[in-house]
UniProtKB/TrEMBL annotation:
Catalytic activity: 2-phosphoglycolate + H2O = glycolate + phosphate
Protein's recorded name: phosphoglycolate phosphatase
Similarity comment text for this entry: Belongs to the HAD-like hydrolase superfamily. CbbY/CbbZ/Gph/YieH family.
Gene Ontology molecular function: any one: phosphoglycolate phosphatase activity
Any one biological process term the GO annotation gives: DNA repair
Amino acid sequence: MRSVIFDLDGTLADTSADLIAAANACLRSLGREELDPARDAETAFRGGRAMLRAGGLSEDEVEGQYPLLLDRYGAALCVETRLYPGAMEAVARLSGAGYAVGICTNKPEALAEALLVALGVRDAFGALVGADTLPVRKPDPAPLTEAVRRLGGDPRRTCLVGDTDTDRHTAAAAGVPSILVEFGPSGDRVKALLPEATIGHFDALFDVVKALDL
């Protein structure tokens, strides 16, 4: 079976404002300068630890604050978060054409599950693999391969839709194509990562996936 695997943060949904709010709560508690939701959106999509480091915390402070950040984020993970325009229409079109669809994210699995439920879209995806589902996370290819396995798909007939170099490297390590979105904070700079394709809107995804001939 052919499959399309999606990253979550920065790909299906703009979660940056809620992520930054959680990080800023930690930074405020330590009297540090807070992150800017616009300027630091790209950092938010690289994870909680990246945001804390951007706030000037030492590695010991990062490790101490990271569980608190997750707790704060989990308590308010869908306040400002929104799906990108056309995301679920694209997912539905792929599913209708016989592609299995799943998610492979570096967000902890329980938080990813809760967010998808809060957005009302969990049932659209046949598999979800998070940062802690396996002992390794992206860019290791194992989470991607596991997502495909859970869908009953062929790991040679899949692609990964993402937004960062992490997704690009994950797909390359798995030996499958990557499609990077240009509507996140990185914009069209993702083209420099040399993915197999990029899209400026989800309306283009179906035709791009079809052209890959999975």
